[in-house]
Amino acid sequence: MSCKPARLRFPDDEQRQPWLALLLEIQFICNQGVEHAIALDGRRLACARGCASCCSSHADIPVYPLELMGISWYLLEKLEGDAGAEVRERVRRQMARHRDLGACPFLVDAACAIHPLRPMACRQFNVFTTVCLPGEDAYHSRRGDVLTPDAKRKDTALSEMLRHHGVKDGSERRRLVASGEVHRLAQSLREMRWEALAARMGAAQVQNDISQEAT
Ligand code: SF4
Ligand code: SF4
Asked: 95: domain range?
């Protein structure tokens, strides 16, 4: 069963940080592309909350600079309010030692702690019919069960993202998407220096504790 995607809204944050409004718009387009493809296919989606072996088995998840800004913002400013202090602390610790984890540092109790801001690659990877076996990458084991997102919306999302990199001309953006050059902007999620951000999360927490003690 699928439901119509809604665009996430953080009005105050978006007003202060226009890049966030652009990112949320891009995610919305991406979600629409996924929902459209699911409806078109007609099969039952196996992906569901609590099913997350893909978050361990997929070592190479591309993430773009604008997405990284969104993830950092969410971790520093929203995660605790959405998921609670305990989840925030678990994520912080996982980020600090993520190179030893063998899984995405944002995976907590078989759920994505940054779900509202997760990368496009995670949004678009969906599997039909049966859940993946532990360690299975369905893209290789049964490509026919892996969703192919709506190409037009996927390309539009990437094209819009290029605005963040100062590419204003629409035909140039389309060229960069069609040629695949846009993907050079992506880095591997697992290879990021999450430990540096974990340190910032820890410092922000200390500052917060001091402020609370002072009031
Ligand atoms: S891709 Fe596979 S492991 Fe991941 S949520 Fe979907 S069915 Fe589960
Ligand atoms: S960002 Fe979230 S959905 Fe993507 S691999 Fe990590 S835990 Fe899974």
From this structure: 11-207
